[in-house]
Amino acid sequence: MQQHRRIGRAVAALAVVLLLAGCAGTPSGAKVVGMWGSTASGQPNLNIENDGTFSGSDGCNRLSGKGQIDGDEITFGPIASTMMACEGVDEWLGKAATGNVSGDTMTVLDDSGKTIGTLPRSGS
Q1: Where are the alpha helices (DSSP H) in the chain?
Q2: What is the torsional sign of CA 90, 121, 33, 26?
Q3: Any residues with CB less than 8 A from the CB of 8 and at least 6 apart, and which?
Q4: CA gap 87, 80 in Å, rounded
Q5: Which class for 56: exposed (0-12), middle (13-18), buried (19 or more C-beta within 10 A)?
Q6: Fewest CB within 10 angstroms: 36, 91, 96, 110, which?
Q7: Is the distance from CB of 61 to CB of 93 less than 8 angstroms?
C-alpha cells in the first residue's frame, strides 16, 4: 500500500513538472509585443506592451489605447488620437481594429476586416 502512495506521489510530481515546463515556452502575445513601423517623419508606428497597451503615431497624430492580445493577433480597443491636420499623410493607422503578425510584418485591418496597411517590425 505504501509503495502505491509513493508511485502516486511521483506521478503527481512528474505531472506538475511537465505542466510547468509547458508554461516556460514563448509567452502568449510575444509575437505582437514590440515596436512596429518607422519613427521617420510622416510614417506610422506603434509600440505594443505586454498588457496590450499601445502608443504611436499615424504619421501625423499621436495614437494610444489598450488592446487585447491573443497569440499573434491584437484587437485594438478604442484609439485615442490627437486631431492635427497634416497634408500628404495617410492616417490609416487610426482606423485599426485588429493586427495580425506573420514573421516580421503586422497586417492591420479595419473593423470590416479589410486590410488597411502593414507595419514592419522595428529594430528597437
Answers
A1: 2-23
A2: positive
A3: none
A4: 20
A5: buried
A6: 110
A7: no
**The amino acid at 95:** K
The predicted-structure confidence for 34-90, as pLDDT tens digits, reads as follows 999 999 999 999 999 999 999 999 999 999 999 999 999 999 999 999 999 889 889
pTM reported for the whole predicted model: 0.75
Q: Cα 76 to the chain's mean position, in Å?
A: 9
Q: Alpha-carbon Rg of the chain, whole angstroms?
A: 21
* Residue 71 Rama label (left phi>0; alpha psi -120 to 50; beta): left
Q: Would you tell me how many other CB atoms lie within 10 Å of the CB of residue 85?
A: 8
Distance of CA 31 to the CA centre of its chain: 6
Residue 6, φ and ψ in degrees, nearest 5: -65, -45
